[in-house]
Amino acid sequence: MLNCLTFLLSCPCKFCTHFKLQSMKLITIFFLFLLLASPIVSGATLKQQEVEVLKEIGNTLGKKDWDFSVDPCSGERNWTSPASKSYSELNAVNCDCSFSNHTLCHVVSIVLKSQNLSGTLPPQLARLPYLQEIDLTLNYLNGTIPKQWSSLNLVNISLYGNRVTGSIPKELGNITTLKSFLVDRVLEFNQLSGNLPTELGSLPQIETLLLTSNNFTGELPASFANLTTLKNIRLGDNQFSGSIPNFIQNWRSVETMVIQGSGFSGPIPSGISLMKNLNDLRISDLNGSDSPFPQLDRITNLQTLMLRSCNIIGAMPENLGNLTNLKVLDLSYNKLSGQIPSSFAELQKMDMLFLTRNLLTGPLPDWISKPDFVDLSFNNFSIRKSEEPGCQQGSTNLFASSVNGNSIGNISCLQNTGCTKSKFIKYFL
C-alpha cells in the first residue's frame, strides 16, 4: 500500500496528477469533517477569586453540599440538579464562559429553591460582579436584605417563602437593571416591615413587584407613579395606610393587580379605568366610607374581577356585561342593591359568581345555574314558587337569599337570618 502511494505521488503522468489533486481534496474534507464533528472540549474555568466567594456564600446560607473538588461552572456533581414539575431549576450555579477567548467563566445566576437552607442572606453575593439573578425561593433564611446587593446589575431577586426581616434597603432603588422584585411571589410570606422606600420608584425596568403577606406600613410613595413598566403588582396582606393612590392610572402595562387586605382605604380611584391591560384585578377589605361602583367597562381583557368588601353601594352597572372575557366575578360583602343586570347573560365564559352578603332584590335570572358555582347567599331575592325549592339548587347557593322566605313553604334556610360577616370564612382566589 505504502509503495503504491509513493509511486502515485512521484509519478508525473496526467492520470496520477489528477488523482493526487482529488486525493488532497478528499483528505482536506475528511479532516474538516473530523474537526467539526468532534466535540469541542472547553477549558474554561471559574475565576479562582469567585470560587473562594462561593465558599463563603455557602457557609452563610448553610449550603453544605457544594463540591469544590470540581469546577462550579462545570455543571457536574451537585452544582446543578434536575428540574422539578414546579420549577425549571431547583439548584443551579449558572456561568457565562465566554470571557478571555472562552477560557474564563463568571457566575451570572444562583438558583437555590427548596434547599432547606437555614442561614442568612449573604452580603458576599455582591462580590460576584457579573451576577444577574438571586433566587432563594422557599427556604428558611433569616436576616435582612443586604444593601451591598445594590452594586450588582441584578435582573431578578426572589426571596419568596423565607423568614426575612427588616425593611427594604433604599439602596436597591439604584439597581436600574432590575425587572423582577420579585419573581414568583418573591418577598411574599416573609416578615419585612416599615415604609416602602421612595427610591424604589426609580426602577426604570421593573415589571414584577410582589410584596404580599409582610408587615409594610405607610402610604405608597408618590415616586411609584414612575413605575410605568410594571406588569404584575401584589400588595395584599399588609398594613398600609391612606387611600389607593390615583397615580395607579400610570401603570398602563399592568396585567395583574392584587390589593387584598392591604390596609388601604377606598374609594377605588377613577383612574383605574385607564388600566386597559388588566386581566386579573383583585381588591378587598378597604377601609373608609361608601362609594359607587368604579367604571370598569373599558377593561375588556378582565378574566378575574374581585371587588370584595370594598364599601361599594348602589346598583351593579349594566355595562359590566361588556366584560365578556370574565371567568370569575366576586362582588361579595358590599352594599349592592337592585337586580342582577340582564347584561350578565352575555358573560358566557363566567365559571364562578359570588354576590354574597349584599342587598340584591328581584327574581333570579334564568341563566343563574350555568356557571360552575354561584353564591347568592344573604340577599333579598324574590324566590318564586315555581322555582325548585331548596338552599342549594345545583351549583347555586341560595342560603338566606330570600326576603322572609317569600312564602314558599317551610324552607327556613332561604330566609335572611342576618348572620354577621365574621362568621364566614373568606374565599380567596
TrEMBL record:
It is a single-pass type I membrane protein. It comes from the Eukaryota. It is found in: Membrane. SUPFAM superfamilies: L domain-like. Pfam families: LRR_1 (PF00560), LRR_8 (PF13855). GO terms for cellular component: membrane. Keywords: Glycoprotein, Leucine-rich repeat, Membrane, Repeat, Signal. This is Leucine-rich repeat-containing N-terminal plant-type domain-containing protein.
